[in-house]
Amino acid sequence: MTTMTDTTLSSDEREFLDSLPEHLHDAGSAYLRCVGDTDPVTFDDAYAGEWDTFTEYAEQLADDTEMLAEVPEWARPYFDMDKFAHDLTFDHATETAPGGGVFVFRSI
Predict the structure, then answer these.
(1) Is residue 13 in a domain?
(2) pLDDT in tens, 17-43
(3) Contact 1, 22 (CB under 8 A)
(4) C-alpha dihedral sign at 61, 67, 69, 75
(5) How many domains is the chain partitioned into structurally?
(6) What is the DSSP string of 3-28?
(7) Which of 2, 59, 71, 74: disulfide with 17, CB 3.0–4.6 Å?
(8) What is the strand order of the sheet 47-51 is part of?
């Protein structure tokens, strides 16, 4: 099952979507629209998941990388997560997900 109209897909795009597990077809279609690459390995490296908001992704990235680990707990509220998320948009691509959230792709 592919999610883009079959008549709009090149053979490379169709092959790319068919190589993905079915639960990733919406994300794969979004990747084709915003990035245009048909390499499944690059998709795997770039795909950062589906999130309610891009800021939620940025918050999780900060947690996962322990970016604020050295910052005292009392000082963490002064970190502007919205500005951090804005700066991340320069290295990421996003596409609206069918459920209203966003698919996030890292620049590779």
Answers:
(1) yes
(2) 999 999 999 999 999 999 999 999 999
(3) yes
(4) negative
(5) 1
(6) SS-GGG--HHHHHHHHHS-GGGHHHH
(7) 2
(8) 47-51, 102-106, 92-96
